[in-house]
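User: Can you write out an input/output pair for a complex, sequences first and structure second?

Assistant: Here is one pair. Inputs:
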Amino acid sequence: MSDPLSAYRAKRSPDRTPEPFGPVGSAGGRLFVVHKHAARRLHWDLRLEMDGVLRSWAVPKGPSYDQRDKRLAVFVEDHPLEYGDFEGMIPEGNYGAGAVIVWDRGTWTPLEDPIEGLKKGKLLFTLQGNKLHGRWTLVKIKKGQKDW
Ligand code: MN
């Protein structure tokens, strides 16, 4: 299998950003993290641990507590597990330049097979975090695209 972090590493240089480059972790954990990222445009990054990496979506408006709300979530490159602890300032001129803080963190529980769900474009899960509790659904808008 190809390295799931190759896209992540290709966008960053280790001597120019404080972000972790860590290896792919072991499978089986269920960490979730939401980073608040004050990049060129403020957004929230939802990350769900799957297969030893953090599968990630950039959510421009952040997660909603209202089940009727639909929020765009753009699927982005897998991040290393260590990114779950990352907070810091990505220097100007680098990919994602700006301040990153952990906005929420906890565990997530898939309600259906998440590997199949990722392929199909539908993930049902609950979050057990400090701020976020309850059930969320990620649905891919159109096959072959990155918008969910
Ligand atoms: Mn981001």
